[in-house]
Design a protein that fits this description.
Two copies of one chain form a homodimer. The first copy, chain A, is of the alpha/beta class. Chain A has two domains: 3-44 and 288-386, Alpha-Beta Complex (Aspartate Aminotransferase, domain 1), CATH 3.90.1150.10; 61-286, Aspartate Aminotransferase, domain 2. In chain A, 40% of the residues lie in helices and 16% in strands. In chain A, strand 7 (165-171), helix 8 (183-196) and strand 8 (199-203) form a beta-alpha-beta unit. In chain A, helix 11 (287-309) packs parallel to helix 13 (372-386). The first copy, chain A, is globular and about 55 Å long. The mean pLDDT of chain A is 96. Chains A and B meet through helix 3, helix 5, helix 6, helix 9 and helix 10 of A and helix 3, helix 5, helix 6, helix 9 and helix 10 of B. Chains A, B: This is Aminotransferase.
Chain lengths: 387, 387
């Protein structure tokens, strides 16, 4: 009986996340400081939790609209208008059970076996995996780390697009790099995609986590027409400490509405109504929380990047967005081995760079959305191993 | 700009549910009695809602185990042992964000473009759609309605399996028919699948809604070995009035565990922890609720089937399972037109049989999981149109 092999080879071959491999090595160790996952250490704020409780009591527990309840879709339109200055009509919005689900739905719409998606990397591993689930081929376009931080060579991105390319995937602000694509580059990518008939999938989950005083990082919405082949993916996870709620959304051309109505129906049959009502509270009352989160992360980033920069073997540049320090350690080329050693010797949990594709190997990712005293302790421990 | 057509043709071509088409015609009409969807009219019971509230307060709001939190997976093992008398180890259980998501994950594991899945029909439309999302071909095996109710000809099912067939899909108790596959037939199907190297996907969402005094309808788990190519799909929606919570599970060979760990990660990245804790309460404290639900449905079924049988043009047989009356009306061949007319003339919302594939056209589906006085009123109205 070889049931385990009689599934699609591409699904069998999906690589386990190297982050999970490392986390499994460290899980449950007493005193370990876990900074490996992409989530903060604060629970969802009370006003959101109370909105969920209220919605459960009020009976938002039945089947509901596949593309999202009207109050949430309308709140999202207002939010995008407010944050990015772009009017987005409600028929462009689809609520999903996470940013991940939105990306999977995007791939299901676009990628046939053998189709290629050009992916700017280093990037979180699930993006390339979602392409592979469809039998597609992710084509990495690695950025380089210069003295001004991570840089994407647009000519290299465009050269990676061939006859089988269906889409360009950009995650800005980027996980794990914190890189932010300039608006002018977004405009050039959109123009290139338009000319070549390609789709752009833009993962803007970290848009609010920027440290240069802006309200948000640029969005592809700001450089695209409503009918452009653009799918913007977003999530409540990072802005409003809702990682465990599984709530996201996508913005597409309105013409895809009926298709998404079906595709959501056949993928998950929608998102719980009471979770969507919690999302309404997040959008409508959540700006102070976002501002506090950015301030908290800014202090954490200063602490972490400062402490890392003081270690002679470490190469680190504070990134302008997201909530990660992504740093190289001189002489270290095997990031899984290094992350494992750091667990064993320092009781700090970090994500190995190998998880994030080409250009990630040799680096480590540290999520600094955490209490300062915990980070201080972690940095002291790291200094003893990496110093 | 023709963005709307530049997606995979198979996704563009996914048919909208005929149920939704009819519901859109009737939605919002004052006084309409909606019996079109597959959900009861009772909200989730308090002990489940309170468990969710508690879990939200207790901080189950972070990322969690991709295949489900240990307390829920263990509760499900105990449940399956108790209800079906089959020991199921925890490594065979994967929690999903609905039965639908479990079916989609199953299709993602098994179906390449051009692959066929033999589907016993009439069946709820999402099953065939999930095959199509993968580029696969659903091959319907229509049952026939005899004097003893719906009958599946196993020889016909086996004959429908050819060189491209990857799986047999069975939904028993069936939506919309209420048909229950006998255990001996399940054993024969499993043996055939084993011999031919096919998978069996068994949707057992209505297993507890049976009206012959049994605890549950037979499960394929009862006739299969742990290593058989069997995927059993289930959900909290129907048994515990949790349609809007999006919580389901699947039982697979243990060998698929690591694959599902990845596939859940890349599809939805898991199910909210607090919803899973609500599921634990449903399993551990929910038997009285299930018993009450079955009793309530039994009375509703008697009322509805009796009233329908009294109409000379209606052909109805009380089905042994699920919570639908699925009935033909003499001289009516266009079920969408008929359902539309019933909305206009009787203010009752029914699902058109055409939604459920071959053998469904000409019939109507009525969900009787509803208050008796409401059903009585609905039956009076229907009598005036169909009598």
């Amino acid at each position: 009986m070889v049931a385990e092999f009689d599934i699609r080879p591409g699904i069998q071959a999906l690589p386990a996340s190297a982050i999970v491999t490392v986390a499994n090595h460290g899980r449950g160790r007493e005193g370990l400081i876990p900074l490996w996952f992409g989530e903060g250490d604060l629970a969802t704020p009370d006003f959101i939790r109370e909105a969920a409780d209220r919605a459960i009591r009020d009976g938002h527990v039945f089947y509901t609209y596949q593309r999202g309840v009207p109050p949430l879709r309308e709140a999202l339109c207002a939010y995008l208008g407010r944050v990015h200055g772009v009017p987005v009509p409600v028929d462009r919005i689809t609520v999903t059970t996470s940013g991940m689900a939105a990306i999977m739905n995007a791939m299901q719409m676009l990628v046939d076996p053998g189709d290629e998606v050009a992916v700017v990397s280093p990037v979180w591993p699930n993006v390339m995996a979602a392409v592979r689930v469809q039998g597609g081929v992710p084509v990495e376009v690695p950025m380089t780390l210069g003295n001004q931080g991570w840089v994407l060579d647009l000519e290299q991105l465009f050269a990676a697009c061939g006859p089988r390319t269906r889409a360009i995937f950009v995650n800005s602000p980027g996980n794990p790099t914190g890189w932010i694509m300039p608006r002018e580059d977004m405009a050039r990518v959109m123009a290139f995609a338009r000319e070549r008939g390609l789709w752009v999938i833009s993962d803007e989950v970290y848009a609010r986590l920027v440290y240069d005083g802006r309200t948000a990082a640029p969005s592809f919405l700001e450089v695209a027409d409503p009918e452009d082949k653009l799918i913007v993916v977003n999530s409540f996870s990072k802005n409003w400490a809702m990682t465990g709620w599984r709530l996201g959304w996508m913005v597409t051309p309105a013409a895809l509405g009926p298709v998404l109505e079906n595709l959501v129906q056949f993928s998950t049959s929608g998102t719980p109504g009471f979770i969507q009502m919690a999302g309404v509270a997040a959008i409508e009352q959540g700006e102070p929380w976002v501002a506090e989160t950015v301030e908290r992360c800014r202090k954490a980033r200063d602490l972490v990047c400062g402490a890392l920069a003081a270690l002679p073997r470490v190469r680190i540049q504070p990134a302008p967005g997201a909530f990660y320090a992504f740093f190289q350690v001189e002489g270290e080329t095997d990031s899984v081995a290094l992350a494992t050693r750091i667990i064993d010797e320092a009781l700090v949990g970090l994500a190995p760079g190998a998880a994030f594709g080409q250009g990630g190997e040799g680096a480590l990712r540290l999520c600094y959305a955490s209490r300062l005293d915990k980070l201080e302790e972690a940095m002291g421990r790291l200094a003893r191993v990496l110093g």
